Amino acid sequence: CVTMMKFGHRSVSPLSCQLIVLVLTLLFHIHKAQAGETKHADGKNTSTACRGSFECDRGVILPVWLPQNPSVGDKVARAIVYFVALIYMFLGMSIVADRFMASIEVITSQEKEITIKKSNGETMTTTVRIWNETVSNLTLMALGSSAPEILLSIIEICGHGFKAGDLGPSTIVGSAAFNMFVIIAICVYVVPEGETRKIKHLRVFFVTAAWSIFAYIWLYLILAVISPEVVEVWEGLLTFLFFPACVVQAWIADRKLLFYKYVQKRYRADKQRGIIIETEGDNPFPKLDIEMDGQVVNSHKEALDGMLPFMEGAKDQEDEARRDMARTLKDIKQKHPEKDIEQLIEMANYHVLVQQQKSRAFYRIQATRMMTGAGNILKKHAADQARKAVSMQEVRSEEDDHTVKVVFEPSHYQCFENCGSLVLTVVRKGGDLNHTVKVEFKTEDGTANAGSDYEFAEGTLVFKSGESQKEITVGIIDDDIFEEDEYFYVHLSNVRISWADGEMEPNESPPKASLGAAHMATVTIFDDDHAGIFTFEQEMTHVSESIGIMRVKVLRTSGARGKVIVPYKTMEGTAKAGEDYEEVTGKLEFLNDETVKMIEIKIIDDEEYEKNKTFFIELGEPVLVEVGQKQALMLSSRGGFSVSGSFHVHEAPLLTFTPLYYFKFGLNLKKKKITSDSNENRPVYTEGEEEQIAKMGCPSLGEQSRLEVVIEESYEFKSTVDKLIKKTNLALVVGSSSWREQFVSAVTVSAACDDDEDESGEERLPSCFDYIMHFLTVFWKVLFAFVPPTEYWNGWACFIVSISLIGVLTAVTGDLASHFGCTIGLQDSVIAVVFVALGTSIPDTFASKVAAIQDQYADASIGNVTGSNAVNVFLGIGLAWTIAAVYNASQGRDFRVKTGTLAFSVTLFTIFAFFCVAVLMYRRRPSIGGELGGPRTVKLFTSFLFVFLWFLYILLASLEAYCHIKGF
């Protein structure tokens, strides 16, 4: 089987191996059945118990196929029909078990918030799962993965008058053997080359492994030693009570309570020989498992107190997780530079889902759906989330389209005081253009006053049918006074809507109309009598490192007369030029009436998760290089200025000295001598007044002439990382919210690609195998789509209905298996060990294979095998035998169980299981590194060894059943 796996590209190879075993066994036993008939006709003394019976008994549901003694040809035909029906029933059981496991995932994923109080009085709030991971694995998870075997044992006893049968118990033992040997062999082999997987919760593994082996030893004791071939009531009841005892002890080991808290965090064997057996991890708080912890506020104070350092230390590990995710995003971006940001985020999200720790139920569901053509649930979930986001945006836009919105567009206006008037635009958006919309407007003073700076205006705008835009005109008043920039407001109010004829419908409510967010316009009036004050918008600004080119506004306020040059340069802070940004030095040239200029600086993106570095942009002294005509005439009307006997008013040279320049270097400013009579009425200024007037008109720097730039991490990048490191509730991935969703999924075929394939992010088309499996199982998919969605009753509705359907299918499967065995002459114990146990374990095989490849640890792939084997005995056999023992005791008779075949199988399995666990523990030595994977030679040898143990178990159990070797 392992050799075949080397040539299998997909996970079909284990299935191929198992089908070959089934077919060979079938052909062998049909031939053996014919030989057995001949020997019996010849009158040889071979007991029926040893050679098998050809007389079929009525099943729990299925009747006997008459006649009882068909010809050889009819036997072959019946055997094929039963075999094909068994395979089809196994597929049906896998699909309904998928629904069952989805309900278990939803139930065990329920969370609650708890508040923990620190010693200093501070409180911390966190979210924990209600179900402890270990408890859920040994109860609901084990029940989900082994429900057919457990229910078969119970149904067989209840359906046959509370008498013991071979099919149920033998199926449980056979399934345990397959899980322990074949599944672990596959998991050892499929781990990628050069990697290993170790069991993380080793304490729990030791507990469940011990209980698993003890379970089969206990079976042998009650069958062959304590009360041979009789199961008494106390024996059955004690067997069943071992189930909660196993769960409680595993929980204690997981929580490190009682004596476990005194056990050191490492178990060590002979260190000289290099065998080191570690516990859950080397760190005191190994991983952020608090979500899976199930720890809630209870009476164990030390357990609660122990969470405080755990939670306080969790921040460092969360930061490390963020850094890892940041690196992952960068790697994906480098591999796929052609992808846009949404595609990159989707690929990263899928990567996170693949790497996220998952439960046994999830892997079982994933394996079943991939096997039956339902596709990769992780990829489908990512696609569904993207579609939902788009649809929500469309819904919001559709809702907005039905409402009329009236807004200014734009909502900010700027003008010079000499512009005369300003036109503001009002638009209507959305709704039906056939309606007439009315809205009132009114100006309101800010620092600008109506009557002195602008003309007051108010009125009503009427948008007639088909009109979507209106204008408001406001007059601007000019003066010759130096003043700061001023502003006023224009408000919209009382929006109303009517039909095209201007009247409202009397019997119908009018369509919705409202003011939009931009229902107020701000108008800024710039003074045109001053060269301007130059400043940044603010003292500090924050930019994302992913911005590329940052653009910084330099504003010219309080006037815009003349041509002014403003120098600027960058200065280092904690951010370094060439590493975090590119150094820039230059000059801004403001033309006459130009009020805004932009400085462009390139920011270097190194995609850090957290970043906080600063640098500065500094403006130099502005220089007036050309005086506007109005300013020159205004200065002339106030007396003009002479410099060294020359008069500079208009037609100034390119670098005419500004008054500020004169002040700086102490040049003499004198009022021009007046000789004309026409100038007699001119005001006479003193030298100080002249200087004040000149100073008021020259360009200068404002208060915010130095801008601090803080470079931060990319906001989009950071939020993406934050979202990705948050664990997705996998119940949302595997669960369903409506019957419609279930039926759509049932009739849809999807590609069943492995999670480690198709890294390009492109959607794959279904293969031929996907279509074949889909059409083979579409009946079951549609039938079980009637099961209530997992959203109902928090998954319990789906749980109850699913387990009921599993019980019905299990009863039919048990009858088919029994009739198939009697048709070809196989005993129930053999048919259970070879066929039924193998058929019910196929989904677990695929689940364990995927878990071994994807999971960081070996717990999900093999750690649950031992626990599941123990639960199968205590719950499956223990509950069934308790019911039968109580019933028979009430009837005054013993509940008898034949010792022979079952006792031999149990003993054989126990010996092999001891050997298997010992090999796994030996593989933890440093030269190998873990239970799974490791050097190629070692993992091949381990896989061959475990598969050989399984074949040897099947061979010896079959030989004993047919009396070729002596049992007990």
UniProtKB/TrEMBL annotation:
> Which residue ranges run through the membrane?
79-97, 168-192, 204-227, 233-252, 793-812, 870-889, 901-922, 942-963
Specify whether Plastid is a keyword of the entry.
no
Would you say which domain of life the source belongs to? Eukaryota
Q: Which residues form the Calx-beta domain?
A: 393-493, 521-620
What is the residue range of the signal peptide feature? 1-35
Subcellular localization(s) per the UniProt record: Cell membrane
Task: Please give, as recorded in its UniProt entry, the membrane topology of this protein.
Answer: Multi-pass membrane protein
SUPFAM superfamilies linked to this entry: CalX-like
Classification via SMART domains: Calx_beta
Listed GO CC annotations: axon; postsynapse; sarcolemma
- Any single biological process term in GO: calcium ion import across plasma membrane
Q: Which keywords has UniProt assigned to this entry?
A: Antiport, Calcium, Calcium transport, Calmodulin-binding, Cell membrane, Glycoprotein, Ion transport, Membrane, Metal-binding, Repeat, Signal, Sodium, Sodium transport, Transmembrane, Transmembrane helix, Transport
Catalysed reactions listed for this entry: Ca(2+)(in) + 3 Na(+)(out) = Ca(2+)(out) + 3 Na(+)(in)
The UniProt GO MF terms for this protein read: calcium:sodium antiporter activity; calmodulin binding; metal ion binding
Q: Does the keyword Signal apply?
A: yes
The protein's matches in PANTHER family, at most eight in alphabetical order, are given as: SODIUM/CALCIUM EXCHANGER, SODIUM_CALCIUM EXCHANGER 4 ISOFORM B
Family the entry assigns? Belongs to the Ca(2+):cation antiporter (CaCA) (TC 2.A.19) family. SLC8 subfamily.
Q: What is this protein called?
A: Solute carrier family 8 member 4b
Q: Which organism is it from?
A: Latimeria chalumnae
